[in-house]
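Sat 14:20. Reprocessing the chain from the morning session after the first attempt stalled halfway. Input below, unchanged.
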Amino acid sequence: MNSEQWIDKADNYIMKTYGRYPLVPVRGEGCHLWDADGRKYLDFLAGVAVNNLGHCHPKVVAALQKQAAQLIHCSNYYHIPQQIELAELLCDNSFADRAFFCNSGAEANEAAIKLARKYSREKFGTDRFEIITALASFHGRTMATVSATGQEKVQKFFDPLLHGFKHVPFNDADALRRAISPLTCAVLLEPVQGEGGVVIPSAGYLREVRKICDDNNLILIFDEVQVGVGRTGKLFAYEHFGITPDIMTLAKALAGGAPIGTMLARGDIAESFGPGTHGSTFGGNPLVAAAGIAALRTILEDGILENTEKMGNYLVAGLNKLKEKFPCILDVRGIGLMIGMELSISGGDIVKEALAEGLLLNVAQDRVLRFVPPLIVGKNEIDDMLEILTAILKKTQLSL
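Finished this time. Tokens:
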């Protein structure tokens, strides 16, 4: 079937939970996608920062194919070698001592919320359950993670939200300090806000947050679902800021496109999760864990982090040149290949124009174009993207 036929069928059978673009991808390789009509697209969205190694990376594909022929799934009542190996890789390359596997970022954040509350109540008493999060944050679509998210548009229509969450401005340590009460048990933050518009904290903010948590016996949780696994030029974003969290959540890029989520924690905190306290039927099954091992080893061993830093600098420089030409560009900010370009106008039409020109982009908070290409991207792909974007901005500027 062609794209139009697929879209017509989707209209009959799929719930309208996404504002989908008229694109039907059927094949991917590296930084490119092809649709059902054979048209090629340059992908600077990467599945929303999932395909950090590009589409169908050979090492991830080989790991999935090999594992699928041996064992796809078994119960977490048993010990799963691939899951154990992936946990070892994650713990050996982070602050953490223990891992819990699930299927998504929202589930990882659910696990972190539950663990923080259980540990705090066991250690400090039953009155400690409140978690402070940031305005403009995004932590998932379940009821707990919607309640934790600091965006009204995500929470709308789902009242009553779950009790026990406070929201304070991001990048404001004084506001966080004032929000703490005897009920507070934890602080949950994205080290860099993604859906909030690629917001990077000022120097010292996260160090101050760490100190506030230490002074008040609070657990510090970092949601690295979008920014972790190499996206910022380091394996984990917290490494840029000279501190470590107590709990960290990962998902998106961890298994090279296969669905996985992970919560990592310090050993003493992880002890609060005993048998029966939490679980996941599919979490960390042999198939996705094998993909995770392949993806993580590739990022650690194949120069991916170095390329991310280098290409991130190259892309930011190119976008800043555009900023000099087009007054509608207010700001360019980024860390690694997590880059935002803030506009004085809505970015939705630019995203649509880009799609028509064979370029996949995304907009956050209505006015921030978000660039999260595969971490294997090279100068040629960046130059191609900048050429397309320049033409669109020229046309846009003329219409203002």
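The domain at 3-56+303-399 is CATH 3.90.1150.10 (Aspartate Aminotransferase, domain 1).
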